[in-house]
Design a protein that fits this description.
With 399 residues, the chain is α/β, with parallel strands linked by helices. It has a single domain, classed as Rossmann fold (3-Layer(aba) Sandwich). Strand 1, helix 1 and strand 2 form a beta-alpha-beta unit. Helix 1 crosses helix 9, helix 8 runs parallel beside helix 10 and helix 8 crosses helix 12. The longest helix has 25 residues. It is globular. 49% of the residues are buried.
Amino acid sequence: MKVLVLGGDGFCGWPCAVNLADAGHDVVIVDNLSRRKIDIDLEVESLTPIATISERLRAWEQVGGRAMRFVSLDIARDYDLLLGLLRSERPQAIVHFAEQRAAPYSMKSSATKRYTVDNNVNGTHNLLASIVESGLDIHIVHLGTMGVYGYGSHRGATIPEGYLTVEVPQADGSRFTEKILHPTDPGSVYHMTKTLDQLLFYYYNKNDSIRVTDLHQGIVWGTNTALTDRDPRLTNRFDYDGDYGTVLNRFLMQAAIGYPLTVHGTGGQTRAFIHIRDSVRCVQLALENPPSSGEKVKIFNQMTESHQVGQLAHKVAALTGAEIRYQANPRKEAIENDLIVDNRCFLELGLQPTTLDDGLLKEVVEVARRWADRCDRSRIPCLSAWTSRQAEALSSTQG
């Protein structure tokens, strides 16, 4: 099918686009290259050197991949161009990665908070409105986050895939059951935008019958897939800085360069994880198993395992000999939390999970060691704090 991959130049978007093209789909990457511009603003680069988008596309053709096209477009601002693109390309599906993806960056300042809301919410709404106006039947596959559920539960309850069956008592003593969206509990401005996305999808699905699959993804780790390993110009980005580096990748990079593993708070925070290889596979499975017309929004929990952050640090330390250093937590969150997640939908579609093992961890460490000379150690600490109190505590532990 013809697929537009919005945000197809990013950490998740690029390997996803390559995977879909390799699977035989006609892929058009739509991106405003904002992630590269943020690198310039933050004065930090991907640990791995990444080629320009045009070099990436040429390399993909040269190694035998089905050609992909690129369209430069800001979906949050260029509504008329987006609508025109839908009418001219007439895609069967759209994979939506075109959102500012980092919680710490979203909490960095008033400017980054406003940018995250303007970009993420406007982009999603423009996409939905343009599909309605185009009159096309397009399936949206959206990359959401497990963070919409929040990380404050100690009840040991399993998080269902998007919907919760509740019992509602009535004044006359009777009761009825109803299936509702699982209550949200966003922990940052970034996570808040994903909860707003969820409501936008709910409304446009109900009102205009737009078909949507919303993927509540865990924290992604790893760097390359088998396809992006084919040529150095296809290499995926590797973020290690305090704003964009995901926790496990940061631990592995820190171990590779002899920098203490930075555990924020007690390390008792439990998070869901997924390898980049499984992430791209899940998107393909969702794309090729769309909801039927009139079906409510499909919500999948896109994760393969859960781990406590402190336990991960100890695992990496045991593997590499790295030191662990505890620091104040920049986030306003529970000291510890449970996270039991139902992810049966992808398993039933045939996903074979890539679980955390020493071989894959070493693979990431080797990538980090290869490019260690590109690391700016001053960019490793997380300096984006959720509140002024957190900022003061963070400053004291890093000073």
